[in-house]
């Protein structure tokens, strides 16, 4: 039963990646002409024919797609039209910047959002809990890029405390360019991470509060109270533990949002990550880069969904038994 | 104890009311300004003859060097910022409402069909929705907007921008409505009146649109209100990134994008006022939507 459930989920993840890869591959045939993109408009027709030959653009569609998949599996997404370098290299050198930004923001948004949601659910009658909820509506209404811009206005332009762009100094640790070990890298991370986290904190707090309220309404909580257990035990041992499951889902959703909005934050702060790479590729129709980014993102999201589903099934047998 | 807690609930509802009322009032004012903008703007920022470069880069009226004619100051062309804001607000709201209309149309049709006919129709539609759900809607809208734009010749990109943005936003959010409508339809279709209509010989489409749809609309209404905030926010984000509304027809997001370029030269007003307008608009839509949800559909809470 569990195995079947696992296989179904795995199949679904592969389906997502397959469809996205098909769409991503299709883009190359829909937009622009790779030959013009590499050689420019005034290349001789002989040079153009040579390149068509070299890129094997005249093969049948299925053959080209098969080759695309075979190459992609080995991490080969071709050459970036713009950078004239392998796409894999361009992406590899930008992963650390985005990963550090997104993970820092994830820790901040879960680390603040979950406790806020829990206390807002437990003390839902108090005036500050409703203030918190009103505040969270304001929080989810703040567009990420506006938060970034207003922070730059306050802390860079007006006060001059924090840098407004870039990653600061980085050091290489085993091939991973990290900004977490230098003072300028850390100060540069503050504003991007906070502006990425602000609306997410509010979102997490709201979701966790809703889930916790759901649990607090259940019979076993009432029985626990009837048994004379203290509030603290009821709240934290019984209620919170049963809220942890939905929190797994929330965290999964969170990673997706953070990666999506990292694109925006990177643009505001000129952060040299995957997001700024993707945006300039989109502006310049650098198809190999767009394609690779899409496939990478699809793999990432499919994996996150798979892991979340599996954790959920592991923790709650009802899930795998009913849907398996 | 129950009486006391009910009383407290009531008290809390009352104490929250001023916030809801304020938000609703602000929302009404903003919508009114947006609707009437072309006729009530103090200056026409697109009438090149009336622009005077001597009036460019002016700070807000209450600042030293400000001009009483331009309450929020002027931009680099000498255009009145308040007028730009009013017209930008109009564009933002227009795009937001149209985008939600597209989402609702696609989602309603997909949800009705899959909830009523079930079977493989439902499997295909809902699986497509599942796959789309794997991706954050913002990223999807950015992708559709960016790619659709690069497929058009440069000359048409500006005039087609509003259609591209509306479609990109609309397509990126239909699955939410499809799921909601499908669930409502499944409940509705199992009821006796649908059976009675079948027995009376009504056609499938007749039952679907005349009987089932009207009874499934309440949750759609709530989600649509909440979704307008999402659409406005996403449109602003796309425009800020350069894949949304063009500078010839700026939304609030486009104005922020333009203003961002002047932030470091000390002209904070060209970016701060559009930003604040956007935030106030989004907060008031969300507060109103939240209240509407509690009112119409406590289940969704």
TrEMBL record, chain B:
Q: Which domain of life is it from?
A: Bacteria
Q: Where in the cell is it found?
A: Cell membrane
What kind of membrane protein is this, topologically?
Multi-pass membrane protein
- Answer whether the UniProt record assigns the keyword Transmembrane helix to this protein: yes
Q: Where are the transmembrane segments?
A: 20-41, 95-117, 129-148, 160-181, 220-243, 268-292
May I ask which residue range the UniProt record assigns to the signal sequence? Answer: none
Location (main, coarse): membrane
SUPFAM superfamilies registered for this protein in UniProt: MetI-like (SSF161098)
**CDD domains attached here?**
TM_PBP2 (cd06261)
Q: Which residues form the ABC transmembrane type-1 domain?
A: 89-289
Keywords of the record: Cell membrane, Membrane, Transmembrane, Transmembrane helix, Transport
Q: Does the keyword Repeat apply?
A: no
Q: Which family does it belong to?
A: Belongs to the binding-protein-dependent transport system permease family.
The protein, known as? ABC transporter permease
């Amino acid at each position: 039963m569990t195995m079947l459930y696992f296989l179904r989920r795995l199949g679904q993840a592969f389906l997502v990646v397959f469809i996205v890869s098909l769409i991503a591959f299709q883009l190359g045939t829909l937009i622009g002409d790779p030959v013009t993109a590499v050689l420019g408009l005034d290349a001789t027709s002989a040079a153009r024919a040579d390149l068509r030959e070299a890129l094997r653009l005249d093969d049948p569609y299925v053959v080209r797609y098969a080759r695309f998949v075979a190459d992609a599996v080995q991490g080969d997404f071709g050459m970036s039209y713009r950078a004239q370098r392998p796409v894999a290299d361009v992406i590899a050198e930008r992963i650390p910047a985005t990963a550090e930004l997104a993970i820092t923001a994830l820790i901040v948004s879960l680390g603040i959002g979950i406790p806020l949601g829990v206390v807002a659910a437990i003390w839902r009658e108090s005036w500050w809990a409703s203030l918190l909820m009103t505040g969270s509506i304001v929080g989810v209404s703040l567009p990420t890029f506006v938060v970034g811009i207003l922070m730059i206005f306050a802390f860079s332009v007006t006060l001059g405390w924090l840098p407004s762009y870039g990653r600061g100094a980085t050091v290489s640790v085993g091939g991973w360019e990290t900004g977490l070990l230098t003072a300028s890298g850390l100060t540069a991370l503050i504003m991007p991470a906070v502006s990425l986290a602000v609306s997410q904190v509010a979102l997490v707090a709201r979701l966790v509060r809703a889930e916790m309220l759901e649990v607090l309404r259940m019979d076993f909580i009432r029985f626990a109270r009837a048994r004379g257990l203290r509030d603290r035990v009821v709240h934290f041992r019984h209620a919170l533990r049963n809220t942890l499951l939905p929190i797994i889902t929330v965290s999964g959703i969170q990673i997706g949002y953070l990666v999506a909005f990292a694109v925006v934050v990177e643009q505001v702060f000129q952060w040299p990550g995957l997001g700024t790479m993707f945006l300039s590729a989109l502006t310049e129709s650098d198809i190999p880069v767009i394609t690779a980014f899409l496939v990478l993102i699809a793999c990432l999201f499919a994996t996150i969904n798979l892991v979340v589903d599996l954790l959920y099934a592991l923790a709650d047998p009802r899930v795998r038994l009913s849907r398996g | 104890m129950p009486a006391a807690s009910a009383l407290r609930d009531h008290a809390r509802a009352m104490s929250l009311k001023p916030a809801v009322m304020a938000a609703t009032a602000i929302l009404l004012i903003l919508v009114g300004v947006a609707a009437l903008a072309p006729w009530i703007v103090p200056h026409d920022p697109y009438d090149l003859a009336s622009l005077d470069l001597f009036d460019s880069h002016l700070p807000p009226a209450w600042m030293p060097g400000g001009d009483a004619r331009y309450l929020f100051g002027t931009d680099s062309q000498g255009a009145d910022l308040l007028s730009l804001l009013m017209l930008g607000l109009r564009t933002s709201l227009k795009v937001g409402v149209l985008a939600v209309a597209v989402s609702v149309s696609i989602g309603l049709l997909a949800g009705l069909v899959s909830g009523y006919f079930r079977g493989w129709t439902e499997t295909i539609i809902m699986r497509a929705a599942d796959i789309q759900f794997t991706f954050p809607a913002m990223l999807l809208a950015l992708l559709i907007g960016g790619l659709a734009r690069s497929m058009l010749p440069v000359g048409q990109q500006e005039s087609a921008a509003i259609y591209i943005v509306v479609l990109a936003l609309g397509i990126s959010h239909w699955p939410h409505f499809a799921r909601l409508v499908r669930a409502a339809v499944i409940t509705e279709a199992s009821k006796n009146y649908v059976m009675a209509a079948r027995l009376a010989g009504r056609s499938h489409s007749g039952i679907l649109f005349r009987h089932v749809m009207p009874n499934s609309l309440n949750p759609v209404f709530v989600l649509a209100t909440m979704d307008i905030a999402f659409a406005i926010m996403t449109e602003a984000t796309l425009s800020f990134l350069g894949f949304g509304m063009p500078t010839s027809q700026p939304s609030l997001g486009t104005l922020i994008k333009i203003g961002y370029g002047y932030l470091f030269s000390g002209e904070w007003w060209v970016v701060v006022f559009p930003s604040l307008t956007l935030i106030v608009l989004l907060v008031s839509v969300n507060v109103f939507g939240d209240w509407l949800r509690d009112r119409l559909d406590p289940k969704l809470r």
